[in-house]
Amino acid sequence: MPDRTRSTPPFALRGPYLTSFGDPFVDGVDATRRYESDGVVVVAEGKIADAGPARQVLGRLPQRTPVERLPRGSMLAPGFVDCHVHYAQLPVIASHGTELLDWLARYTFPSERAFEEPRHARVTARRFFDLTLAAGTTATAVFCTVHAGSVEAFFAEASRRGVRAVAGKVLMDRHAPKDLRDSARRGYDESKALIGRWHGRGRLGYAITPRFAPTSTPGQLEAAGALWREHPDCWVQSHLSENQREVAWVRELFPSARDYVDVYARYGLLGKRAIYGHGIHLAEREFAALAASGTSLAHCPTSNLFLGSGLFDWKRVKKRGRPVRTGLASDVGGGTSLSMLATLAEAYKVARLRGASLSPGELFHLATRGGAEALDLHHRIGGIAPGLEADLVLLDLGATPLLAQRVRHADDLDDALFALIVLGDDRAVRATWVAGRLVHRREPT
Ligand SMILES: [Zn+2]
Q1: For residue 54, how far is its CA from the centre of ligand 1 (angstroms)?
Q2: How far is the CA of 278 from the centre of ligand 1 (A)?
Q3: 84 Cα to the center of ligand 1, angstroms
Q4: Cα 307 to averaged position of ligand 1 atoms, centre (Å)
Q5: H-only helix segments in 63-168
Q6: How many angstroms does the Cα of residue 412 sit away from the middle of ligand 1?
Q7: Which residues of 78-97 are buried (b: 16+ CB within 10 A; e: fewer)?
């Protein structure tokens, strides 16, 4: 396997850049972000070596460091973070007509079955990274399938590309087609072997991945909790309270649990580095338990709208005194876009339907630093600051004629940023760097 993580010689990028460095939901946008209209970002050995106003950074730049001027109308930002996505469901994105539980049976399971075939897994993993990097997404938390080979294929490709990724084998030992089920023992053994092979290798991390409570027996959830206790620096990812029928089903399957969150709590699956997709139909006690344990939510707006699952409630999620750490996620194939810009636009609309208004600064945070915090990776990615890994995206504020004319009428940074979020998608991603290596460049139309 060629080593693609080796870095390029030092270089600097000069132009406007925007970064978030705290939680705007707690401390406000102004106190948690930095915008430099004429900035310089210096990259060396895969990391950001320096960043700040050009008038300061240029003076201390090591001799002979090449400085690339960014094109007019563009802006540098941290690479986007997608906190919950199923690479194996790429082939069924945009499939018509059902809600969650039918969708799983009709589209998800048949699509995932094909990953028994290693070649299919390899080809899909390649396509997944081609598409996510072109959309400016440089870090992902990924569900593979029940097949250990699907994880091997995914991590091998992630390793070749040098991207930061968290992923795991789906654990599923009931309420799924027989050929897609493992057992508590086998799921544990295969996950443990994958942890040994991939966790902490380069930029990769392993996530213990029960699909969701209904498809795991209590014995399998128990084993998942035990595995996490043995490997506490691994992640845990699953689904939580996405759909009303699902919530009712969980109540039936786990009658002694207080609620859905309590099911995961009982098996030791809450805590920092645990991240759950959705979290729509939660009671106050459940939000409080998530916040107290440091558990994160992955908000998946395009998926929630597409499957008619429900509306994420920002006011309750970010309640003063006990905000729940939250990142943004595509949830493809239930979600309808790999673009975090397109996903942000839907997050804004979902919030509107709940009577909340996310500011441009809050939205930008969600797709960058917010996602990094939700994955407990903010000390490595999600921002532009010395010491962080150089995952960067160059955004094109004139990507389409519609966006270009809107930005020409923008009053200020937030006005332009909001237009980019609402009207932008992968076309607005002009270039993507992973650990300082240019991995995607789009020629302006
Ligand atoms: Zn999902």
Answers
A1: 42
A2: 8
A3: 6
A4: 11
A5: 100-103, 109-113, 118-134, 148-161
A6: 36
A7: bbbbbbbbbbbbbebbebee
Query: Would you call 37 helix, strand, or coil by DSSP?
Result: strand
Q: Dump pLDDT digits (tens) for 139-192.
A: 999 999 999 999 999 999 999 999 999 999 999 999 999 999 999 999 999 999
- Provide CB contacts within 8 A for 70, sequence distance 6+: 13, 14, 15, 16, 76, 394
Quote the ligand 1 centre to 188 CA distance (angstroms): 21
Residue owning tokens 């990812």: 237
For the record, the structure tokens of 250 come out as 């969980």
Compute the distance between CA of residue 268 and CA of residue 265 in angstroms, rounded to an integer: 5
Centre of ligand 1 from the C-alpha of residue 109, in Å: 13
Task: Spell out a b/e string for 171-202, using b for 16 or more CB atoms within 10 Å of the CB, else e.
Answer: bbbebbeeebbbebebbbebbbebbeebbeeb
pTM score of the predicted model: 0.97
Amino acid in the structure at residue 380: R
Query: How remote is the CA of residue 275 from the centroid of ligand 1, in Å?
Result: 11
DSSP E strands in 241-313: the ranges are 274-278, 296-299
pLDDT digits (tens, 9 = 90+) for 210-260: 999 999 999 999 999 999 999 999 999 999 999 999 999 999 999 999 999
Q: Quick one: tokens of 23? A: 């939680």
Question: How many whole angstroms from 334 Cα to the centroid of ligand 1?
Answer: 7
